[in-house]
Specification:
Elements lengths: L9 H20 L4 E6 L7 E5 L8 H6 L3 H22 L9 H16 L2 H20 L1 H17 L1 E3 H19 L1
Helix pairs in contact: 1-3, 1-6, 3-4, 3-5, 4-5, 6-7
């Protein structure tokens, strides 16, 4: 007789779903392909969004010059999007992590390597947080996060193709409502 793995409480799964949906929707906004999204990977309800690498190189000469500002921007905003979507879903005082500390450390590390100044990296992160928050305040973008999070809570794993269709559908639905 094998023991069943512990199940995540629904609120933890919802937090993870919003977290991963935030990453996936930001991928779409940054024109990065999503491979798959999964939640409920452990007892804490964790998840992952597999996506195209923002630091992919097109040529050896570009690689020698190091990362571009656009690659840094995509990476930082992508890292911030998960924890910020989760926080928006939970409202003030949510307090869960679900990978947010790792994401925020990664964003800071990328910014530090690019700007080489803590002061400049912190200023850039403040700008990036404001931009991501502004995007999530846009009704069409937040509708995409919500629709994708709800689908993740039901299915636990979603392909990149299906995620793109859910995001497109949310945007089209909100556009029709606005008319």
């Amino acid at each position: 007789e094998s023991a069943m793995p512990p199940r995540s409480p629904p609120d933890r799964l919802a937090a993870a779903a919003y977290h991963e949906a935030g990453h996936a929707v930001m991928c779409r906004l940054m024109h990065l392909r999503v491979g798959a999204i999964r939640i409920g990977l452990d007892a804490a309800g964790g998840g992952e969004t597999m996506h195209e690498n923002p630091f992919r190189r097109k040529s050896a000469s570009r690689a020698a010059r190091g990362p571009t500002r656009l690659q840094v921007e995509k990476t930082v905003m992508l890292c911030l999007a998960g924890p910020m979507a989760q926080r928006k879903y939970e409202a003030p005082g949510g307090g869960r992590d679900d990978g947010g500390a790792f994401d925020l450390d990664t964003a800071l590390g990328v910014a530090m390597r690019f700007f080489r100044s803590k002061r400049t990296a912190d200023a850039y992160l403040a700008f990036a947080r404001a931009w991501v928050a502004q995007k999530f305040d846009e009704p069409m973008v937040w509708a995409a996060v919500e629709n994708l999070a709800r689908a993740l809570m039901r299915q636990r794993t979603i392909s990149g193709r299906k995620a793109a269709a859910i995001v497109r559908g949310a945007v089209e639905d909100r556009a029709r409502e606005a008319v």
